[in-house]
Amino acid sequence: MDTSTFKSLIWNLSLPTLLSASFLTSCSTTATQADTVAADAEVVAVETATATAAAEPVAAMIERNPEVEETLWNQHATMKSPINSGNVNSMQMSWKYATPTPVSHTPLVDASGVYFGDWGGTVYKVDAGTGKLIWKKEIEKPKTMWPWHGFAGTGTLGDGKLFEASVEGTAFALNPATGDVLWKTRFTDDTEAGNLSTLLYHDGLVYIGVSSVEEPMTGMKKGFIPDFQGKVVALRASDGTMAWERVLVAPPQNGCAVWSSFALDPDLNMLYFTTGNNYTGEATEMSDAIIAVDARTGEVRWHNQVTQHDVWTKADQKGPDYDFAGGPQLYVADVNGQPRKLVGAGQKSGIFHSFDAQTGERVWNTNIGYGGIDGGMHGEASVGDGSVLTWSNNSYVHTMPPDKVKISVKKLNAATGEHQWVINHAQPAAIVPGYLANDVYFIGSLDGTLQAYNADGKQLMSMKAPAPIISWLWVEGNTLYFGGGVPGMFKWADKGENGVYAYSVKQ
Description:
This protein has a single domain, classed as Quinoprotein alcohol dehydrogenase-like superfamily (Methanol Dehydrogenase, Chain A), CATH 2.140.10. 4% of the residues lie in helices and 36% in strands. It contains four helices and 36 strands. It has a five-stranded antiparallel sheet with strand order 1-29-28-27-26, with no helix packed on it. The two termini are 30 Å apart.
């Protein structure tokens, strides 16, 4: 599932970011606790702040570029779509493309088609209007004995190429017109490491977060000892050679997987990402952290750890397993009357954190929902019009049907973190980010429920997709795209419906 955000789904696939290591694991919240959550949705206006504010802002001139903000800033929002609160009720499925294995890869859309990969190691291009196949290429033989495999993460478009990176540790550049492989390269020497993240292309470089299957393998293989060191690599788009790598933990310590998504600020020349927990041994300072590096060299500019001493594996559950399931998101907000560039991210603790994008100084943080191994935030928020829209699992247990535990949806003031409204028990549990199109906020659940909310919290639309929604939601034009499927850990799910779905509004 994507990932972005699959470690949760994926960890439980021993069960993506996604699906994000929390779903493969046992959960600390019991079914009895989860059943106490009411089934009715309720919109609650919130008048008191629950955020922790920070110091006076640093005044600075900020030049705005809407194109950069909608692409490189990872905001999960668009103001260009014709979808709005007045027509979203006309939305219906326009096509689906079935695949033999789950699709947690976010559909990538350009003028010529829709691109995606599946867990079987195959990459596809279909027509955006009809879903008709244009080409498909089986380019990676997945290690199906692993709890997640193939293209469980998400590729990216750039430099006239389609870039993909597998769980098995190989990166590819494909010709978007034909699917032919232009180059391929190994981006890790670790035999249990690869990609679960959402790749990012900018200015000739392709950024890949490196994660591992070692955390769940401790529960699958008796006596297994992790030795994985998390890192980010930057490959040259022209030929796949490595421009730089930033290793985040030194032996004998391990962990710090990067399995969500990236944000990039060309003006500051900073690349932002979030990290997971340590696996064994001593905790290190870059686990459970948001990190900013020089986008051209990988040199660390700043890092801010939000949870200390988080050492966790399936076999030895010491820490809370509160790693970030959502990648960083850049935005500008008026803090104490001054425009300030911030970077925020959501954590499995249930906390959304916001920092100064240039210095790393904490600006605010606020609670979205209950934390836990399968709880808290499992993906990125949506940012637009001075607000942050997001949701939280409330201690969902992956072995339970998703409708047993309902999520909380919240709208925050982007400058302060104050809650503007809350929808309690909004819809079944989820593992992927929502998406904001104008004044419509979409959320997709694990049982296939797809719902849309207005900017004031009113529910506008509800429908049911044929499969669990396990990729990012993505809007292009008048259409919402997403991937779906039934990984093995979902014992409660009907089998068979894997693929990509397109839902459109009438124009």
